Amino acid sequence: MTRNLSILGATGSIGRNTLRIVDRFPNRFSVKALSARSNMTLLADQIERYRPVRVAVGDERCADDLSALLPTDLAVDIVWGESGLCRIAALDDVDLVVTAVVGAAGLLPTLAAIDAGKDIALANKETLVMAGQAVMKRADAEGVRIYPVDSEHSAIFQCLAGNRKTDVDRILLTGSGGPFRAMPLEEFESISIDDALNHPNWQMGRKITIDSASMMNKGLEIIEARWLFDVPLDMIQVVIHPQSIVHSMVAFKDGSVIAQLGVPDMKGAIACALSWPERMDIGQPAPDFPALHQLTFEAPDLEKFPCLRLAMEACAAAGTMPAVLNAANEMAVVAFLDGKIGFTAISELIGMVMENHRWVVHPSLEEIIAADTWARRESERWMKS
Ligand code: NDP
Ligand code: MG
Question: Of 119, 92, 120, 108, nearest to 32 (Cα)?
Fold first, then answer.
């Protein structure tokens, strides 16, 4: 049976990898909708190739640019903005929505997809960081399945399959430690944009690459796991594993540990989300173990990576705090990539914004969005001063 896809963030790293899998299985998947914010040239190529019925773009000007790039006889409905993204997330024919936009922009379209009863392949971790409890509750109520695309969460999902949740002792969330794992703290002041964009194991979009360098990514993933698997913070342990072969593990009450392993390439986790419980032959070989020589594990260094500690604090506080952490982090990452603040200022900014936040314990969705808006303004104020 053909699965009809809507891919939000089709021009990004996850979006393009998703389309590579579609290329391999043209009879299994049909692309009904795509979105891009600004890369109209690539989106125009994708439209010609996959023939979606509707696409969403950043704004009206992008829509005009896109129309000009497309052959006049090609029929595609072009919508834009947040409402456009929500419309392609809820499109009638679609069975599975791949949420691969970056940042807080993923939240409302994901909710729109859930409300329309679509299953979700979730890459946009910020959705669960901001509003994990509300999103999971709504998915449950609508009978919607959320398949994780984040490699760690895909691994945990696979390790849990066939096991009883009551038998779980701990989730062991692995992370490579990023490019600065072995760098002495004294040298962090001199980290350049290029240094931070140079991830040792993974090819990803710019925002998540900076998050990986600061280890905020692992922090966001703790919060993502907390809601996705409904486990308390004290059952989630971060383990640094520089080779990125063990994508994560689950420890059970009897001391037994199940791990999921694979080469560090997101196509494995994406394919799993697209076809679970079936496994597709995506042409990706298993790791060559003799050539690997060794897999190593160590504890994270919270002094060197304060972002990880801040995310744990936000996870423990819950309520609006994770949304504030996320918004301040998004602002800090943009400012760092624009050369406006240094690497160590990322955690300073987030810490300051969290400290000033008047946190709401049981927020509505509106209060979560208001906290996000407040944190962005507060971040700007901090940067100006
Ligand atoms: P990219 O930056 O490569 O791609 C982001 C995509 O979203 C692009 O299509 C971009 O459009 C679009 N986009 C960006 N901002 C907005 C916005 N405000 N509104 C609507 N669309 C927008 O990101 P990645 O693919 O790396 O990451 C996507 C998500 O997946 C993130 O949440 C990330 O944390 C998560 N993830 C990514 C992994 C990876 O390996 N890349 C691994 C695990 C999780 P355009 O380029 O046209 O402007
Ligand atoms: Mg990950």
Answer: 92
